[in-house]
Write a structure and sequence with these properties.
- The protein has 51 residues and is of the alpha+beta class.
- The protein contains 1 helix and 2 strands.
- The chain has a two-stranded antiparallel ribbon with strand order 1-2.
- A hairpin with a 5-residue loop joins strand 1 and strand 2.
Length: 51
């Protein structure tokens, strides 16, 4: 899979997404050497939806 750099807006949105979901307990930190790609899809209202 080709890697793409996140824009500044996407990086800020990612930080918000991770912080909120860590605080809610939906996700937890991992020490795994493996990673998963993270990207956004623009919605019709121009907001970003994480995928």
């Amino acid at each position: 899979m080709k890697l793409y750099q996140l824009s500044l807006k996407e990086e800020q949105q990612l930080e918000t997404f991770l912080t909120e979901n860590l605080d809610k307990g939906y996700i937890k930190p991992s020490k795994s050497p493996m990673a998963s790609p993270f990207f956004f899809i623009a919605k019709k209202d121009r907001k970003l939806r994480p995928c």
